[in-house]
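Throughout our pipeline, every protein is held as a single compact record rather than as scattered files. Nothing more is needed to write down the fold, since each code stands for a local backbone conformation. For reference, a complete record is included directly beneath this paragraph.
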Amino acid sequence: MPAPLPTPRNAGDAPSSAAVSAVGLRKSYGDKTVLDGIDLQIPTGSVFALLGPNGAGKTTVVKILSTLISADGGQARVAGHDIAADAQAVRRAIGVTGQFSAVDGLITGEENMLLMADLHHLSKSEGRRTAAELLERFDLVEAAKKPASTYSGGMKRRLDIAMTLVGDPHIIFLDEPTTGLDPRSRHTMWQIIRELVTGGVTVFLTTQYLEEADELADRIAVLHDGRIAAQGTAEELKRLVPGGHVRLRFADPAAYRSATHALDDATRDDEALALQIPSDGSQRALRAVLDRLDTAGIEADELTVHTPDLDDVFFALTAATDQRKEDLR
């Protein structure tokens, strides 16, 4: 497997546009090392997804960056503030929504919003205005006077995020925000996240759903055994594992035969008149295939590029780490 992508520069070298930057974050509980030197750099106004299996340390990263717990080592800045030296400033700049809702089911949705407004020291009039605007934005007006315990899972999650936005945060940490939601509610949540980013909010997302990261994230990191196994864009990560290829299909048998001679490294599918050529999916690799076809005077009727998906990436990265551990025993 190719080497992982380069890790970001040290937090101290990060440009001022970084919403979150960290270097060497470490955390242990007793003899168990949860984080073993985590480096991150997240641009402002982007979605960053942290992937990992249960127990990988995703929530621990969120808790450290949101100042809920202290790291044992390393440094980090969130919204330009050092998480250790200026924790209060960090808290004023962020919002946090966990996988378990903070909604109080005994009171109404509107009362939950007004309670959050009080916690942020908004005036009565400002709190009511903010609550009304957010309830409308998240399509909760009709349910606003009903106890939150009567809400569906998707409605509770929307209310949870609406409550988080009362403080007008620059950065939102969403810790597995769609866990337990049905597909329709999950897609609604995706749209909400996209709208937040369009409005200039930076989103730090942890998830077990690889499709979710692929859909939403500008950059993705895979956390395994306390370390970042790899990070980059979804397309960059997909090129880390083998299995990518270009598939050429021909309607003319003569053209197919000519192509098999010109592309002698291709795998043939005589029944479908198709050739499969190994490729990492990059523009350079695709151009090389097209140049070979042009040189031979051959034109394919259909060309498709296939790259591994994030499931393939995730399993390849975590399996490789597990194998290295096994080899050391």
User: Anything to note?
Assistant: The longest strand covers residues 18-29. The CA atoms of residues 91 and 223 lie 25 Å apart. Residues 245-306 form a domain with the Alpha-Beta Plaits fold (CATH 3.30.70).
